[in-house]
Please model this.
Amino acid sequence: MSDTVDAPGQPEVRITAGSGSITVMGEARDDVVTDGHADVHRGHDGAIEIASRRRSRSMTVRCPEGSSVMVGSRSGSLRLSGRLGAVRATTMSGSIDVEESKGADLRAMSGTITIGTCDGPCRIKTKSGSIRVGSADSVSVHIGSGRVTIDHVAGSVSVRAVSGSVTLEAGGGGPVEVETMSGSITVLLPSGCRPDVRAKSLSSRPKIECERGNDCSVAVRTLSGGITVRCR
Amino acid sequence: MTWGEAVLDADVLTGAVAFTDICGFTEFTAVRGDRDALLLLGTQERVVRGCLPDGARVVKELGDGLLLWFPEAASALATTMQLQDQFESESAATELPLWVRIGLHWGAQTRRGDDLIGHDVNIASRVADVAGPAEVVVTDELLRQIRPTSALDQFEIEELGPVVMKGLPDPVRLFRVARA
Model:
């Protein structure tokens, strides 16, 4: 049993879920299909509205590649696979895993958030859990407690962590700003990059292992934790 | 009219409610001590009192947070955006991480002495939980109050989608507001 709505192009899909896991798949198709456990209709603004019929039921939604997807969930994992447009996802508790999107805003009260590739701005917030970004054009992160790992960001980076370590590799194409209250900060920059570094830790002397210059701006600050800025 | 109805009529307000919350206040206090914590709270209070427009008020303090009330939606949004600008300026200029998140909602509030209570007050509180530091997140109801005017032109409004929040039976459409 399934529900299908014709949706050529790159539609906007708005999903409201309860406590079951949600899977959204971006595929080469011209319609939006659910696995039958949801009400589907077009909203006043043209977006395709999908709501799970039962609070704790898991749900799978298949939509065209490039679709903009908004998901709101009470709890349960959110997995968004394939190539999607802008993704905005919130959950009170549960993990969020996005494979590839053009821009993302991902928020969890508690839970791990992972995004593979974000061809656009990537904004992530979780109160507790860990955050991992594969690659992104720009990144803005806030975490209450937990580890932040950013494998590669081409442009600007802004990270605020209350407690937990932050490790990131920046391409030097934009300013890097990282602040923690307690937690170590490690910033890796490309070989040969000569950054303008402002680093302050109230608990230890920052290690700046780069030749200083004006290639990019790096501002790192922690109340309690070590700081390392290194050029590869 | 019964006695109960008369009391309710007299005590119900309509307006915008904002909750502010300092992210990481507990950790900050643990690392820096009570004296710096007081300094942080004092800075927040000074900034807020300097920005509130006529008719708006601080309803109460909630530890490191504040409950604010505004008679107009547009002025509530403009003020909370201005608050974030000033909190960020204070953070940059000092060693005080004034990382404040703000949630804003329009609705009805019931007066209880100087306090305000009610479902719409609870919604505003939950919206603040969704916001990150330096962010203002608002409900669609708040935006609906402003939309007939051009007061939103100076802002970028980005929908976050239907958001399910603790204790609320239905999801609420939330929006992140940033300077255009």
Notes: Strands of chain B lie at 12-22, 57-62, 65-70, 100-112, 115-117, 136-139, 155-163, 172-179. The interface with chain A takes residues 23-24, 27-28, 31-32, 95, 97, 99, 129-130, 132-133, 158-166, 171, 174, 176 of chain B (CB under 8 Å). The radius of gyration of chain B is 17 Å. Residues 73-93 of chain B form the longest helix (21 residues).
